[in-house]
Amino acid sequence: xxxxxxxxxxxxxxLSCNREDNxxxxxxxxxxxxxxxxxxxxxxxxxxxxxxxxxxxFSPNQLKISGNTILSxxxxxxxxxxxxxxxxxxxxxxxxxxxxxNNQKFVIEFAESNxxxxxxxxxxxxxxxxxxxxK
Length: 135
Hints:
The protein has helices at 2-16, 25-29, and strands at 31-42, 45-51, 55-58, 63-66, 75-77, 80-84, 96-101, 104-113, 116-123, 128-134. By secondary structure, the protein is mainly beta.
Protein backbone atom coordinates (compact mmCIF):
# COMPACT_ATOMS: atom_id res chain seq x y z
CA UNK A 1 0.00 0.00 0.00
CA UNK A 2 2.84 2.37 0.88
CA UNK A 3 4.54 1.71 -2.48
CA UNK A 4 1.28 2.34 -4.33
CA UNK A 5 0.86 5.66 -2.51
CA UNK A 6 4.43 6.73 -3.39
CA UNK A 7 3.91 5.79 -7.04
CA UNK A 8 0.65 7.75 -7.11
CA UNK A 9 2.35 10.83 -5.61
CA UNK A 10 5.18 10.55 -8.13
CA UNK A 11 2.80 10.25 -11.11
CA UNK A 12 0.68 13.18 -9.92
CA UNK A 13 3.75 15.37 -9.43
CA UNK A 14 4.90 14.60 -12.99
CA LEU A 15 1.45 15.36 -14.41
CA SER A 16 1.14 18.61 -12.47
CA CYS A 17 4.22 20.12 -14.15
CA ASN A 18 3.32 22.40 -17.00
CA ARG A 19 5.42 22.74 -20.12
CA GLU A 20 6.85 26.11 -19.09
CA ASP A 21 8.53 24.49 -16.09
CA ASN A 22 10.78 22.62 -18.49
CA UNK A 23 11.88 25.50 -20.74
CA UNK A 24 15.52 26.44 -20.51
CA UNK A 25 16.45 30.09 -20.07
CA UNK A 26 17.60 30.23 -23.69
CA UNK A 27 14.30 28.76 -24.91
CA UNK A 28 12.40 31.38 -22.93
CA UNK A 29 14.34 34.07 -24.82
CA UNK A 30 13.26 32.78 -28.26
CA UNK A 31 10.98 35.09 -30.22
CA UNK A 32 10.54 38.82 -30.67
CA UNK A 33 10.75 41.14 -27.66
CA UNK A 34 9.68 44.79 -27.98
CA UNK A 35 11.67 47.33 -25.98
CA UNK A 36 9.48 49.28 -23.52
CA UNK A 37 12.20 51.36 -21.95
CA UNK A 38 15.80 51.60 -20.83
CA UNK A 39 16.56 53.15 -17.46
CA UNK A 40 19.70 53.76 -15.45
CA UNK A 41 20.02 53.48 -11.69
CA UNK A 42 23.11 55.22 -10.43
CA UNK A 43 23.90 57.01 -7.19
CA UNK A 44 20.32 56.50 -5.90
CA UNK A 45 18.89 58.26 -8.98
CA UNK A 46 16.76 56.64 -11.70
CA UNK A 47 17.00 58.18 -15.17
CA UNK A 48 14.90 57.15 -18.16
CA UNK A 49 17.33 56.75 -21.07
CA UNK A 50 15.03 55.49 -23.84
CA UNK A 51 11.40 54.65 -24.53
CA UNK A 52 10.78 51.93 -27.13
CA UNK A 53 12.28 52.13 -30.57
CA UNK A 54 13.88 48.68 -30.75
CA UNK A 55 13.17 44.98 -30.79
CA UNK A 56 15.33 41.99 -29.94
CA UNK A 57 14.59 38.81 -31.95
CA PHE A 58 16.17 35.69 -30.46
CA SER A 59 16.57 32.49 -32.46
CA PRO A 60 18.60 29.46 -31.39
CA ASN A 61 21.74 30.75 -33.11
CA GLN A 62 21.51 34.52 -33.28
CA LEU A 63 20.12 37.75 -31.89
CA LYS A 64 18.77 40.33 -34.34
CA ILE A 65 18.45 43.85 -32.95
CA SER A 66 16.21 46.21 -34.92
CA GLY A 67 16.62 49.83 -33.83
CA ASN A 68 19.47 51.32 -31.83
CA THR A 69 19.61 51.23 -28.04
CA ILE A 70 21.88 52.86 -25.48
CA LEU A 71 24.36 49.95 -25.45
CA SER A 72 23.75 48.28 -28.83
CA UNK A 73 23.18 49.29 -32.43
CA UNK A 74 21.01 47.43 -34.93
CA UNK A 75 22.58 44.26 -36.23
CA UNK A 76 22.77 40.50 -36.07
CA UNK A 77 24.88 38.98 -33.31
CA UNK A 78 25.81 35.57 -32.02
CA UNK A 79 25.03 35.20 -28.33
CA UNK A 80 25.39 32.81 -25.44
CA UNK A 81 23.52 32.22 -22.20
CA UNK A 82 25.49 31.05 -19.18
CA UNK A 83 24.81 30.52 -15.51
CA UNK A 84 27.68 32.32 -13.79
CA UNK A 85 28.60 35.16 -11.49
CA UNK A 86 28.27 38.49 -13.33
CA UNK A 87 31.41 40.11 -11.97
CA UNK A 88 33.83 37.23 -11.34
CA UNK A 89 33.34 33.66 -12.56
CA UNK A 90 35.71 32.31 -9.90
CA UNK A 91 33.53 33.41 -6.98
CA UNK A 92 31.37 30.83 -5.25
CA UNK A 93 28.57 33.33 -4.76
CA UNK A 94 25.10 32.76 -6.19
CA UNK A 95 25.09 32.52 -9.98
CA UNK A 96 22.79 34.37 -12.37
CA UNK A 97 21.64 33.66 -15.90
CA UNK A 98 23.85 35.86 -18.06
CA UNK A 99 23.28 36.89 -21.68
CA UNK A 100 26.48 37.72 -23.58
CA UNK A 101 26.65 39.35 -27.01
CA ASN A 102 28.68 42.05 -28.79
CA ASN A 103 31.12 42.35 -25.85
CA GLN A 104 28.23 43.14 -23.49
CA LYS A 105 26.69 41.06 -20.74
CA PHE A 106 23.33 41.25 -19.00
CA VAL A 107 21.62 39.50 -16.10
CA ILE A 108 18.43 37.84 -17.43
CA GLU A 109 15.14 37.96 -15.53
CA PHE A 110 11.64 36.96 -16.62
CA ALA A 111 8.29 38.07 -15.22
CA GLU A 112 4.66 38.10 -16.24
CA SER A 113 1.96 40.70 -15.69
CA ASN A 114 -1.63 40.48 -16.96
CA UNK A 115 -0.66 37.60 -19.28
CA UNK A 116 2.15 39.68 -20.82
CA UNK A 117 5.64 38.20 -20.73
CA UNK A 118 8.34 40.57 -19.49
CA UNK A 119 12.06 40.30 -20.10
CA UNK A 120 14.45 42.38 -18.00
CA UNK A 121 18.11 42.62 -19.01
CA UNK A 122 20.41 44.39 -16.56
CA UNK A 123 23.91 45.61 -17.41
CA UNK A 124 26.26 46.93 -14.72
CA UNK A 125 28.68 48.88 -16.94
CA UNK A 126 27.65 52.29 -15.54
CA UNK A 127 25.51 51.85 -12.47
CA UNK A 128 22.62 49.59 -13.46
CA UNK A 129 21.29 49.94 -17.01
CA UNK A 130 17.98 48.09 -17.20
CA UNK A 131 16.28 47.08 -20.44
CA UNK A 132 12.58 46.17 -20.10
CA UNK A 133 10.93 44.23 -22.95
CA UNK A 134 7.48 42.73 -23.49
CA LYS A 135 6.28 39.92 -25.72
